[in-house]
Design goal:
This protein is α+β, with helices and mostly antiparallel strands and 113 residues long. 27% of the residues lie in helices and 27% in strands. It has helices at 62-68, 73-80, 84-98; strands at residues 3-8, 14-18, 29-34, 42-45, 50-53, 59-61, 103-105.
C-alpha cells in the first residue's frame, strides 16, 4: 500500500502521514505520495516540503560558554587568575554541580531555568 504525507500548501507544515487520505482533500492541503513510510532518521522539511535526513544534534558545553562568552567576563577574569590545576578543580566541581544540565542544545539559552 502507498504512503502519503499530507501537508498544508500555504505553510508547508506536515499535517499527517498515512496510507489513507481524504477524498476530496480539505482546502489548502495536498497529499504527497511517498515511496515508503519515512524512516525514523528522517524529518519533514517545511521549506522543501519533503522528508530529509534528520540533522545531528549539536551539544554545547556550558562550561565552555563560561570561559568564552563575553557575557561572563567577571567569571573569566576570576578563572584566568587561577593556576591550571585550580582551573581544572573548578571545572570538575562545576561539571558535578551541573550534572546532566552541563550540555545544552545549540539553540537553547546558556542560562538554566
Amino acid at each position: 500500500m502507498a504512503w502519503y504525507a499530507v501537508h498544508d500548501t500555504l505553510t508547508g507544515r506536515l499535517i499527517s502521514i498515512g496510507q489513507v487520505i481524504a477524498d476530496p482533500m480539505p482546502p489548502n492541503q495536498v497529499a504527497l505520495p511517498l515511496v515508503d513510510r519515512p524512516a525514523d532518521t528522517q524529518v519533514w522539511d517545511e521549506t522543501l516540503r519533503q522528508f530529509v535526513v534528520r540533522p545531528a544534534k549539536v551539544s554545547v558545553d556550558r562550561l565552555q560558554d563560561l570561559v568564552t562568552n563575553p557575557a561572563y567576563s567577571e567569571f573569566q577574569t576570576a578563572y584566568n587568575a587561577l593556576s591550571a590545576a585550580n582551573r581544572q578543580r573548578l571545572a570538575d566541581a562545576l561539571a558535578r554541580l551541573l550534572g546532566r544540565a552541563r550540555y545544552r542544545a545549540a539553540g537553547e539559552p546558556v542560562e538554566l531555568g
